[in-house]
Amino acid sequence: MKWVSLLANLDIALNAVEMMVKRKKGYGLQPTEKNLLLSPLKGVESLEEELEKLTLSQQDVFKSLYGSALYGFFHCAADGYEFVPATRIKQEFGKTLEENYASACTTTCFMRFAKTYWTFKILTFDARLTSQRLLLSVLLEKIELDISGLFFPTPSAYTFSIPVEQREETQRKFILESGANINIEEFITGNPILQQHRKRQSRTGCLGVLLLIRAISISLCLIIVMII
């Protein structure tokens, strides 16, 4: 049963890449592309190190697949496509999307996108559960990392150090360049990650102003004392 499960994960993952590529290019994977994705890798190096081991021609094929699959993801997200059943989101992360974003002013457009992303993330987890580490899993991991870094970043000091205007502009650019049928304004308006970022940036800005006023007041007092 374990081997059946591993093969099923592999088949689902490969079909997912093929669908994303097809949504962007209009046709699926070529035999040479499938063979490359099913190539076993040695060691547990970083994504960059794994890719450096490929020949130049293989790197070109991988880059082409990555670009097509990445933009194909946006086309899937426009429809709220589920890479695995959405019920697994709660199983894996403890909450449904509705529960996770309950306090935010979300829109249908954003929730469709979020459902596609989180089910894709679970698919990426499943793809690692194969008997060998394959280039297929590297491709999925790279797409997931790039999508999460831009649209679903883990809250941290670094995350909030990036101006929210810059993150929003980059999101708009990617969605537009993908050619996917996503209402950008609706997506941005109903994006709870951007909402949280704006609130934090606003609080930080207000605190900075207060600290500046306090510093000026102290400086003025010192100047007055010195004059007296």
Notable traits:
228 residues, 12 helices, mainly alpha, globular, disordered C terminus, 0% strand
Cα gyration radius (Å): 23 Å
Portion of residues within helices: over 70%
| Pattern of helices and strands | HHHHHHHHHHHH
Uncertain stretches: 205-228
Number of helices: 12
Number of strands: 0
Shape: globular
Total of domains: 1
Average pLDDT, rounded to a whole number, is 83
End-to-end CA span: 88 Å
Please sum up the structure shown.
By secondary structure, the chain is mostly helical. About 75% of the residues lie in helices and about 0% in strands.
Protein architecture, described:
With 228 residues, the chain is mainly alpha-helical. The chain has helices spanning 2-25, 31-37, 47-52, 56-78, 87-93, 97-100, 108-127, 135-151, 157-161, 164-178, 184-189, 192-227. It has one domain. Helix 4 packs antiparallel against helix 7 (108-127). The longest helix has 36 residues, at 192-227. Mean pLDDT is 83; it is low at 205-228.
Topology of this protein?
Elements: H1 2-25, H2 31-37, H3 47-52, H4 56-78, H5 87-93, H6 97-100, H7 108-127, H8 135-151, H9 157-161, H10 164-178, H11 184-189, H12 192-227
